[in-house]
Design brief:
Layout lengths: L2 H12 L3 E3 L22 H15 L4 E5 L8 H10 L3 E6 L18 H21 L3 E4 L4 E2 L7 H18 L5 E5 L9 E2 L4 H11 L3 E6 L9 H10 L3 E6 L16 H13 L10 E4 L8 H20 L3 H9 L3 H12 L4 H10 L6 H8 L1 H8 L11
Parallel strand pairs: 1-2, 2-3, 3-4, 4-6, 6-8, 8-9, 9-10
Antiparallel strand pairs: 5-7
Helix pairs in contact: 1-9, 1-12, 2-9, 2-13, 4-5, 7-8, 8-9, 10-11
The structure holds alpha-D-psicofuranose (PSV) and manganese (II) ion.
Alpha-D-psicofuranose binds next to loops.
């Protein structure tokens, strides 16, 4: 076994990808939400399902919550429930996009009363982080406008900066803001945090505890995401990822499904800087909805897709790459990358799993466990969780 393969196996064994609690609830498009049997009825059951993904992959150790979708009476109790299931509660995601008051925005709304309400929600999210032990507050704002002239573009930036500063001041020493951008939707003319540059500029003003989150589905078609990764990493402002894949816009499909080569290119930038492992401070998360596929296997498949892209990225021969780049050997440098990309890493990952005491085939092991049948039989009555509830 080469040194590179040994190193790749070590990193793969330590990799951990966060799951979104909302992936386990029902979801769909604005045309129809399809209910699936056995879907969780509350955050406790969402954690139980997430724990299955961790059980069979060993690479999904935490779960992101979305507030108020995952509101509970006692967050310390929820965190203890997670720990008993061998998962942790990770990022707390705020939600300032589903209340009637937010029709014209939340933190950028022209009315100070609405901005106050949104700010209080964000501060409440930090209180929840204190209770769960979460370190990351993920902020995504649906704010924007639909028509030219509707509101002041610059004025909205001022309002955003003011709210962010208040929330930043409330953070504990080991807590941070992860600011997420998105090109458009639900607003169609302007979006108040539309791109990494805007997010980065706000983070710079706020201070070192504010970093940018890249949701891979939040760009215009053709945008070179790995460039953004390399830039933000260099600046120390890459906070994390919301992984998913897209064919058209923010499709929220399984990561690695639409464009595994793009995922590999992103992971290559991360492998180059050796920031794959959890202690790198980069929050690797999935942000997906499984509208037509079963949800737990959908998450398992997604984790496996990230692992495969990571394994290929870890196999890139960095010395050969640097030598070819230095020599101006365009084809040689490209070949180094493509050799790694074209490697079948499934046997390597099977070995990593077996060495961890896991089944080499997580999807088959989950299917054989009977858990899917169990929850279908047990979870009758109550109301199923959904994207938005
Ligand atoms: C917005 O589209 C987004 O990507 C944000 O991360 C939200 O919090 C999440 O989706 C909700 O699904
Ligand atoms: Mn997202």
């Amino acid at each position: 076994m080469t040194d590179r393969t040994t190193y790749a196996k070590q990193v793969l064994a330590g990799q951990s990808i966060e799951m979104p609690s909302w992936a386990f609830g029902n979801s769909g498009t604005r045309f129809k939400v399809f209910a699936q049997q056995g879907v969780p009825r509350d955050p406790y059951e969402k954690l139980a399902d997430a724990a299955q993904v961790q059980k069979y992959t060993g690479a999904a150790g935490s779960v992101a919550l979305h507030i108020p979708w995952d509101k509970v009476e006692d967050y310390a109790d929820l965190a203890a429930h997670a720990a008993a299931l061998n998962v942790k509660i990770g990022t707390i995601n705020s939600n300032t996009f589903q209340d009637d008051d937010y029709m014209l925005g939340s933190v950028c709304h022209p009315d100070a009363k609405v901005r106050r309400k949104a700010t209080e929600h964000l501060l409440e999210c930090v209180d929840i982080m204190d209770a769960t032990g979460s370190t990351d507050l993920k902020l995504w704002f649906a704010d924007g406008t639909n028509y030219p002239g509707q509101d002041s573009i610059a004025g909205r930036q001022d309002r955003l900066a003011e709210v962010l500063a208040e929330v930043y001041a409330r953070l504990g020493d080991d807590q941070r803001i992860l600011l997420e951008y998105k090109l458009f939707e639900p607003s169609f003319y302007t979006t108040d945090v539309p791109d990494w540059g805007t997010a980065y500029a706000h983070c710079l003003k706020l201070g070192p505890k504010a970093q940018v989150v890249i949701d891979t589905g939040h760009h215009a078609p053709g945008v070179n995401i790995e460039f953004i990764v390399a830039f933000l990493l260099r600046e120390g402002r890459l906070g994390g990822f919301d992984f998913n894949s897209r064919f058209y816009a923010d499709d929220d499909l399984m990561v690695g499904a639409a464009d595994p080569f793009q995922l590999f290119r992103i992971l290559h930038e991360l492998a180059l800087r050796e920031v794959i492992l959890p202690d790198s401070g980069i929050a690797y998360m999935l942000d997906q909805c499984h509208n037509i596929e079963p949800k737990i296997p959908g998450q398992i498949r997604s984790i496996m897709n990230v692992q495969e892209a990571t394994a290929k990225a870890l196999l890139v021969d960095h010395e050969a790459l640097a030598a070819a780049q230095q020599a101006g050997d365009v084809l040689g440098a490209n070949a180094v990358l493509m050799d790694a990309y074209n490697t079948d890493v499934r046997p390597l990952l099977a070995e990593v799993r077996t060495e961890q005491g896991l089944d080499a085939d997580p999807l088959a092991a989950y299917a054989a466990s009977g858990y899917a049948e169990e929850i279908k039989a047990a979870r009758v009555g109550g109301s199923q969780a959904g994207w938005g509830a």
